[in-house]
Amino acid sequence: MPPTTEKTRTRGAPQRPGDRIFAAASTGSGVLILVILAGVAAFLVSEAWPAITAPAEDIPGDDSFVVYVWPLLFGTLLSAFFALLIATPLAVAIALFITHYAPRRLAAALGYVIDLLAAVPSIIFGLWGVAELAPRTVEPTRWLEENLGFIPLFEGPASATGRTILTISLVLAVMILPIITSVVREAFLQTPRLHEEASLALGATRWEMIRMAVLPFGRSAIVGGAMLGLGRALGETMAVAILLSPSGNVSFNLISSANPSTIAANIALTFPESSGLTINVLIASGLVLFAVTLLVNMGARAVINRRREFSGAN
């Protein structure tokens, strides 16, 4: 007879009713998520197909669907990219300050305030961007145009209202900041204490200890948190709809009033007055956003899995 291993003993051991119920509930929840995701994808494809196959003259703007959706997709990716570029380093810095520099009471209060930002409705951020942030960016954008106008991002003409892609990127950065910070902070708190103490005992400064022990351990969490924030920025609707005045242009200029809109904002603004094939066109643009978000998450998962073997977590 083959020797009895720990694995065979675990398989043959009787399970309690609670264990069986919990295992079934967990499995059912996972399958349900997949079913819902497949249902959403099937709905989007079926409703978007008439718009994808429709002749160009039936699409809004009398162009093909690709020409219709490209400026929206460009605006979505542009604003989300710069929001992520602003928010990720700031979130990592805040997480490091909370976990390794701030006194305990201050760290607890600051963590609570950062988490509270996630509970603020997006429409509030949009109103804040219109009323407070946009007017305050007028003079800085003029300075950027005068001094850095040779860079395509700041070639101008600068907007007189401040309602630009740069402003909406700042608003989106504030919105995704608590998401990234929370994920990264929890990862930094789980860094093995022995790793930190060993680095300090060998003569490393606090920053050298963070660079050699904390950051490698939390690398996967940084990537995962950034991708969660990117997903939020890609799908943001009300703040963009309130703040931007879209013109349909495709431009890297961040300070001009000729702004490309985003897919989510365009759907929110256009859907109530749409009918017939226009609704199918909007759903098709939603399918594009769904595919982009799915690809972003798949890419993030691939990066995390690739770096796992090099992470201090192992």
Automatic annotation (TrEMBL):
Keywords: Cell membrane, Membrane, Phosphate transport, Transmembrane, Transmembrane helix, Transport. The chain crosses the membrane at residues 21-45, 65-98, 110-131, 164-184, 221-244, 279-300. InterPro entries: MetI-like (IPR000515), MetI-like_sf (IPR035906), Phosphate_PstC (IPR011864), Phosphate_Transport_Permease (IPR051124). Its main location: membrane. One of its GO terms (cellular component) is plasma membrane. GO terms for molecular function: phosphate transmembrane transporter activity. Part of the binding-protein-dependent transport system for phosphate; probably responsible for the translocation of the substrate across the membrane. This is Phosphate transport system permease protein. It comes from Streptomyces hainanensis.
